[in-house]
């Protein structure tokens, strides 16, 4: 009797998931040695929070305490976006240019595992950045006025949007030539998205041309949704628009990034 061995080997289940998890650990270890990306995701929003609080607190809201209740949710969204927006694109670009990606491709792992691992590690970076911002905001006077589930929902929305937005910089990190170019393009995208929004004041108070942009800016919807949840006035409309924009960013830029990454030689 002849036993046929060919075709009996089964592909290992969830191999891509396991490979991505291992490479996510690698990405987090790099962060412990170089915490710069997380610091950028915390220090920059914290500086904006302190500057805006004492520059615009009394003119906009009459007191810094009331203004902080308005400002902090926007700062939270800014922090979640920055923590991954800068680190992922630059790290992937450096791996491509330094030959690390070629080394990964010589291993028996999924070709997309390095990409997925880096993005997965971002989720923990978002969580750390958001937690540190709460630690800074509460001593300044910010108070969660909604329920704990609503506050967790606001945090989840900020992290979800940051995760979907990071695929834009992943795509940029794959197609441009240097990490410096990734940072340049990221900040060009960051400024109008984060600052041309309801971050510092309601859009009704903005000049006409800026209000038109802020009203369609997806970051405005995320900030409004988080603001409403944290202040105890949940708004289903802004939450729905946040989920819709997150889905659009993910559906458009995730396939583009994965395809461009797969074509890199």
Looking at this protein, list some descriptive labels.
265 residues; mainly alpha
How are the SSEs placed, and which strands pair?
Elements: H1 15-33, H2 36-61, H3 64-85, H4 87-97, H5 100-105, H6 113-140, H7 148-175, H8 179-195, H9 208-216, H10 218-230, H11 236-263
Helix pairs in contact: 1-6, 2-3, 2-6, 3-6, 3-7, 3-10, 4-6, 4-7, 4-8, 6-7, 7-10, 7-11, 10-11
What letter string, H or E per element, gives the SSE order? HHHHHHHHHHH
Mean pLDDT reading: 83
Largest sheet: none
The total beta strand count reads 0
Oligomeric assembly: single chain
Radius of gyration: 21 Å
Shape: elongated
- Portion in helices: over 70%
First and last CA, distance? 46 Å
Strand percentage, roughly?
under 5%
Count of separate DSSP helical elements: 11
Structural class: mainly alpha
Q: Low-confidence stretches at least 5 residues in length (pLDDT < 50)? A: 1-9
């Amino acid at each position: 009797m002849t036993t046929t061995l060919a075709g009996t080997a089964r592909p290992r289940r969830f191999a891509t998931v396991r490979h991505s998890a291992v490479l996510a650990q690698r990405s987090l270890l790099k962060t412990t040695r170089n915490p710069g990306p997380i610091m950028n995701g915390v220090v920059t929003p914290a500086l904006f929070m302190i500057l805006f609080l004492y520059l615009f607190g009394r003119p906009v809201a009459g007191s810094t305490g009331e203004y902080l209740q308005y400002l902090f949710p926007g700062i939270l969204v800014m922090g979640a976006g920055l923590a991954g927006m800068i680190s992922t694109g630059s790290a992937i670009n450096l791996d491509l240019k330094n030959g690390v990606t070629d080394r990964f491709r010589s291993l028996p792992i999924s070709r997309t595992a390095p990409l997925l691992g880096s993005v997965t590690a971002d989720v923990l970076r978002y969580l750390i950045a958001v937690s540190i911002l709460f630690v800074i905001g509460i001593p300044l006077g910010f108070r969660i006025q909604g329920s704990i589930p609503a506050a967790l929902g606001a945090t989840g929305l900020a992290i979800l949007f940051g995760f979907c937005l990071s695929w834009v910089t992943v795509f940029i990190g794959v197609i441009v030539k240097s990490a410096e170019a990734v940072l340049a393009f990221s900040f060009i995208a960051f400024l109008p998205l984060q600052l041309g929004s309801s971050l510092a004041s309601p859009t009704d108070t903005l000049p006409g041309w800026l209000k038109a942009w802020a009203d369609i800016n997806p970051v405005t919807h995320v900030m409004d949704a988080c603001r409403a949840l944290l202040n105890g006035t949940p708004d289903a409309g802004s939450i729905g628009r946040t989920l819709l924009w997150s889905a659009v960013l993910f559906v458009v830029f995730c396939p583009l990034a994965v395809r461009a990454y797969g074509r890199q030689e």
